[in-house]
Structure formats: C-alpha cells, structure tokens
Design a protein that fits this description.
By secondary structure, this protein is mostly helical. Helix content is about 75%, strand content about 0%. α3 runs antiparallel to α7. The radius of gyration is 22 Å and the shape is globular.
Length: about 325
Amino acid sequence: MEATLRRRALTAVAPVAWGANYYVTHQFLPADRPLYGAALRALPAGLVLLAVCRQRPRGAWWWRSAVLGLLNVSVFFVLVYAASQLLPTSIASTVMALSPLAMMLIAWALVAERPGTAHLAGAAIGLAGVCLMLLTGADGVSVPGILASAAAMLVSSFGHILTKRWSAGTDVLASTAWQLTAGGLFLLPVAAAVEGPPPALSPTALLAFGYVTLIATALAFVAWFTGLRHLPAGTVGLIGLLNPLTGVLLGTAVAGEVLTGRQLCGLVLVLTGVVLGRPARADVRKPTPASAHRPATSPPPAARPCTSRPTPPGA
C-alpha cells in the first residue's frame, strides 16, 4: 500500500506540472510561434533524458518511438494549440477532462483493464467538478474548436495506453526520451517551414522554457508513464484531473483571481473523483505469472499418500 501511495504521488507530479505550464506559457512565452514552442519544449527534454539514460532504441522501438512521438507529442501539441486558439480555455479544459473515461475504455480494449464501478463514478464526479470550476457561460464556442479539443483528448489517451502496452520490460526513462525526441524532430522542420526562423528569446522566456522543458515535459512525462506502468489506467486518468484544479488554484494564488463558492464545490468534487480512483487491493498486488503457478509447499514425497494426481496451484 505504501508503494502504491508513492506511485500515485509521483504520477500526480505530471498533471500539477502541466496545470502550472498553462500559466507559464501564457505569461512568458511567445504566443505567435506555437510550432516552435512545441518543438523547443519536446526536443530538448528528449535530449536531456537521452543524456541521462544513455540508451538507444533497439528493434521494434525505432518505429514504436516514432508512433508514440507523433501521438503523444507532435499531433497532440498541435491539436491543443488549435483548440486553445478556437475555444475559451474553460471549454477546452472541460473537453480534456473526458480523458479519464477515454483512457479507461481504451485500456479495456488494448490491455484488458476493465474499468471498475469506482473508477467510472470517479470519472463522472471529476468531470462534474471540472464543469463547476470552469464553465461560466463563456461565449465563442466553435465546432472546429470542439473537434480539435476532442481529437487532442482521444489522441493523447490512445497514445498513453499504447505506451503502457508497449513499454513492458523497457526502461521508462529511455522510452520517454525516445518518444519526446522523435516528436520534437517531427515538429522542428514543420515549424521551420510554417513559422520561418526561430524566435528571439528574452532571458525571461529562456527561464520559462527551462521550466517547460525540464519540469513540465521531461519530469512530467517520466512521472506520468511511470504511473501508467505500475497503476491501473483508470487511476492514472483520474489523477490527471489535478491538471485543471492546479490551473484554478494557481490563478487564485498568483494572478489574484477570486475563488468562488461554485469553484470550491467543483474543487471538492474533483478531489473526490481522484480519491475514488485509488486502486483496489486486487489491483495493487497482482501475482506474477511465476508466483501464480508456483505449487504450494508440499511435505516430502514419503509423507504424502500415493497418488498420480498433481496438487492444483494454490490448493
């Protein structure tokens, strides 16, 4: 149980860092270079992790890294940018709050993790909390924006579960480095073709990119994929609801925004949804294939009755 709590706490680093990333990006990074922003976020993070792990992809991981880099980095970052330009942040964040449910259903299909009642209830309660916190009757809702936000949610959910399926037996640090590097390499030529030369960055913007690269990307993705390795997808998806919650609390603490009673109720519901996502005891301690089929300790053959029928495992 203590190990599971540590893994949940480590996983929570990712949505908290991503929630703070909205504020840092909006306040300190150039808004007119989204493709360069995504490339400069992903590629340095991947290279830093590569320098730490010092491992190259082998075999199938060359094409797996490309696929995961496209899904989790390149396509996702572009879709999120499109959604942020076409929708109010509250609407885009609410659509993204459907990701826990999407991750549960995709995990059911790809890795045979059937969502439990508590996980489904947590997803519904958490989504209701996000709606209370963020939906304030904002205008400017567009169908293309909703489609872009929904596509970003589905692409990232599929990419995360695919990472969970493929990463068994592979170092998490290495697999994260490979896909971040691949995603950044895909984005860089597109950014150069669409946006021209790289933007000039002030010292403040460089510091902001340091946070975005090292904390909100390198550390956050390693924490997130580590959680997916050891916890049920439903649990990890519900922990992701801390993302919009962090954004609301940061706006209150740093930007001087007032936390309303409605937002407080939403905050309580989000936390309730996260708590409902805790793994059941059966999910925490699953026997390994070797231990599941290991016969129980038996007395010496001389002390056992003569029989040719083997003792069933676990009897």
